Amino acid sequence: MGQAQEDHQPCLPSGEAQGDVISRAAFGSSYLEGRRVFQLQGEQLELFLLAMTKMHIPGYLLLPTKVNRRMKQIAAEIERVLKGIVAKRENAMRAGEATSDDLLGVLLESNMAHCRDSKGAGMGITTDDVIGECKLFYFADAETTSVLLTWTMILLCMHPEWQDRAREEVLRVLGPTGTPDHDGLSRLKVVTMVLYEVLRLYTPVMAIHRETYKPMELGGVRYPAGVVLMLPLLCVHHDKEVWGADADKFRPERFSEGISKASADAPAFFPFGWGPRVCIGQNFALLEAKMGLAIILRRFSFQLSPAYMHAPFPVGMLQPQHGAQLRLKTLIH
Ligand code: HEM
């Protein structure tokens, strides 16, 4: 590694880079319009969090306030953009011009095949369903992976020995230049351990919910139908009985033999949920995070700026309340 030059980065970028990734993966050639959906959903989320602070006022969301009117406008614009993208692609597919190597193509192709197989019995998903799926994917990816990357960089600043180990692995496995490929990324063991430990300590989605659909007994307690149960992932991930006395410490080595051996009481690691509704994007998210981190580690070394204040903030995602002010140094290999 050669000389380094000093840079300042006031704050990590928001989910914008991620907007690019999901837009390309979901909409391929229509990615610019897709990116607009991502921006609108970001604004929608911010407004929704604002509105949540007033939810104690009965019927608040129905009032014609400035925020509520903007939220309605955004929902209509998202719908309009997505309908346009879907219609354009359906026409191109009918004309045999479009490929199905993105999410939208896969959804539409499977929809068309399903309609063909059911011989017009109307069993395929509708355009509205396709639009609903696209919205869900955008929303589920909106902040999750960028929050994971943000906490990872903060923790690698706090634990520079792990930053060095992760960088050494990236340079050894992937080399100093070139686009990392899937095969190379899947050989990054230290980076994976680091990401798991960050997901454990700073779990982006802090809890998941399930509703009983019939009377049932769980852990010796009887529940009627319709009870909403919460699994507090963040608390499980910090449970000292399961993870040991050092449960609150950053120790990626606990994952050195994989997830099942990391805790006394497996399974106790659920950053992506569990069961039939487990996060469908978990492999995509980990790949995206590894790719992002590998590129950053190759190009920069980083440390916390004196302006950084450690304040995990549990609103929406678990995020750094005052941002992530870091100092980056460009590395010249
Ligand atoms: C660090 C990144 C991510 C985290 C921590 C995360 C976490 C989660 C969690 C906890 C759930 C609920 C699972 C349950 O109820 O058991 C979920 C659901 C979901 N996630 Fe993710 N997610 C991430 C990234 C992504 C990405 C990148 C995508 C899409 C590309 C995605 C798509 C989805 C979808 C579609 C669902 C709903 C699945 C269903 O209800 O069947 N997620 N995610």
Automatic annotation (TrEMBL):
Keyword Endoplasmic reticulum tagged: no
Coiled-coil residues are: none
In which residues is heme bound? C279
Q: Which cofactor does it need?
A: heme
| Keywords associated with the record | Heme, Iron, Membrane, Metal-binding, Monooxygenase, Oxidoreductase, Transmembrane, Transmembrane helix
Entry's InterPro entries?
Answer: Cyt_P450, Cyt_P450_CS, Cyt_P450_E_grp-I, Cyt_P450_sf, Cytochrome_P450_Monooxygen
**Cell compartments where the protein resides:** Membrane
Q: Name one GO biological process term.
A: lipid metabolic process
Report the principal subcellular site: membrane
Q: Which GO terms describe its molecular function?
A: heme binding; iron ion binding; monooxygenase activity; oxidoreductase activity, acting on paired donors, with incorporation or reduction of molecular oxygen
Query: What Pfam family is a match for this entry?
Result: p450
Q: Which GO terms describe its cellular component?
A: membrane
Keyword check for Phosphoprotein, yes or no: no
Q: Can you tell me which family this protein belongs to?
A: Belongs to the cytochrome P450 family.
- What protein does this entry describe? Secologanin synthase
* The organism of origin for this protein: Aegilops tauschii subsp. strangulata
